[in-house]
Design a protein that fits this description.
By secondary structure, the chain is an alpha+beta fold. The protein is built from five helices and three strands; from the N terminus they run βααββααα. It has helices spanning 6-11, 13-23, 41-49, 54-59, 66-73; strands spanning 2-5, 26-30, 33-38. It has a three-stranded mixed beta sheet with strand order 1-2-3.
Length: 85
Amino acid sequence: MRKWQMQQAKAKFAEVIRRAAVEGPQVVTYRGSDTAIVLSMKEYQRLNATRPNFAEFLLAGPKWDDKTIAAINDRSKDTGRDVDL
């Protein structure tokens, strides 16, 4: 992974894009800190294709047994005391 200073990346933007397509992700630094990364469209689509949507993410979570569900449902419904403000 090649690193480019922000000033370099701006001056040679076409080269940064070309290298991202050929060599892989390119890191852009600003004041010595890694700030951004340039990916090829192919790499972006590959990464994005494997990401589940929110519903799939929730449904893929741990499966709870009946004992755990019963314990959750049996907990106190008390919402606490009333407070005058």
